[in-house]
Design a protein that fits this description.
4 helices, 15% strand, 2 domains, Arc Repressor Mutant, subunit A, alpha+beta
Length: 99
């Protein structure tokens, strides 16, 4: 998404205005969010990027997620990393779509 027109409109053409800065910060924060959270700090929106970061295959990752979903667990550990789904964004499962 091109945020500039929206931010400029909020700041009435002034990108340094408080309204423009507030909207820009909001857009930046929400864009950083993803379905998966690693170690409570790093966000991923897809399995490909997450599996590359964890240095595991997508099959290994999906199997771990299936097991966590079966246990109704919000997190699991893989390669010394804690992986959670982002329930702050409304997710209730690792692999099921957001409801």
């Amino acid at each position: 998404m091109n945020w500039i027109p929206h931010i400029m409109a909020a700041g009435q053409g002034d990108l340094s205005s408080p309204a423009a800065q507030e909207l820009g910060h909001k857009y930046w924060q929400t864009s950083a969010q993803g379905h998966y959270i690693v170690d409570y700090a790093k966000y991923f929106s897809n399995l490909i990027a997450l599996s590359e970061f964890l240095q595991v295959t997508q099959v290994q990752l999906r199997l771990a997620m299936i097991k966590a979903d079966e246990r109704h667990s919000h997190q699991f550990t893989m390669n010394d990393h804690i992986i959670r789904f982002n329930n702050n964004e409304g997710y209730q499962s690792f692999l099921k779509p957001q409801s």
